[in-house]
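Checked the freezer inventory, then went back to the computational side. Two predictions to log before the end of the day. The first one is the construct we discussed on Monday; recording sequence and tokens without edits.
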Amino acid sequence: MPQIRMIKVSFMPQSFRPSDIPRLRAFLARQFPQHSELHNHLQNGGFRMVYPDIQFKFINDRPMIVGYGKGRQILAEVFHKVNYFELSHRQVGIPGKSIQMVEHNVSLPAPSNQQPE
């Protein structure tokens, strides 16, 4: 059975809202511009037109960043370098953060023998 390997980075910052997710992405893009996987912008002004290796989420009232493929290595590299966020000209402390490597089994549904109507 195929597996998907990913890394999950979650933060417990104070005063974080779902609407801050794009600001979090922009902050990390400014901090680590060399990693286009974080922001999907190319240096020539274009965009990376691929499924994102790094995705920003808000799950269970916490900001989370999930990395697949090359995104796993990038998140592992930058994880320890992020000690605060700057969101809308306000600095947000990070009282706690965690990183977790995860593997999920992937299965496809069995093909249906029914003919479309």
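The second is the one RB wanted added to the comparison set:
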Amino acid sequence: MVGDPGGSSDEAVTASTGTVCRVLIVDDDPVFCSTLARALDNRGYRAVTAQNSRTALQLCNDFAPDYLLLDLRIGDENGLRLIRPMLEQIPTLHILMLTGFASIATAVRAIKLGAADYLAKPVDAEMVDQALRKKVAPVSAPAAISSADSTKMMSVERLEWEHIQRVLADNDGNVSAAARSLNMHRRTLQRKLAKRPRRQ
């Protein structure tokens, strides 16, 4: 749940230019967006929101954010596809992936594409604030786990989830193509993607 237990910030968060840091939140949940934006505003940021990739790209150009909070799933769209075009517009953009579909494959993929941090939902304003201030380490740690160790740690359901995420990443987030690669009906794959897996 997004909240702002810390209250208003007495000191505005500033970028290297000395101006208030601008944050673009891209998520298809308007309530989550507005609540998080308000909480970040209270902490000294200037936040705007977008619920689709088209609006996000336009705001990236017009608003020129310092930080991008990007959901992995934006409706039927794959948030990973926005990383490169956003960085092409603003090479210094600090990208924080937010997702309820936490997986090793997507975390590694996001970092390789240029994301700086990766947080699994639910998140609160304090977690996001710390990540934006770089007070927490980027979540590229899963890549350090050997495949043998991770296999021992995971349940059958989790292994299936990781495999699906890997195939989905290989197909650039295209659900139909991934379903064909997995020899699975598209609706079956969508149902599996809608479920949050257990950590082990």
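For RB: The chain has two domains: 22-142, 145-194. The mean pLDDT is 79. Let me know if you want it refolded.
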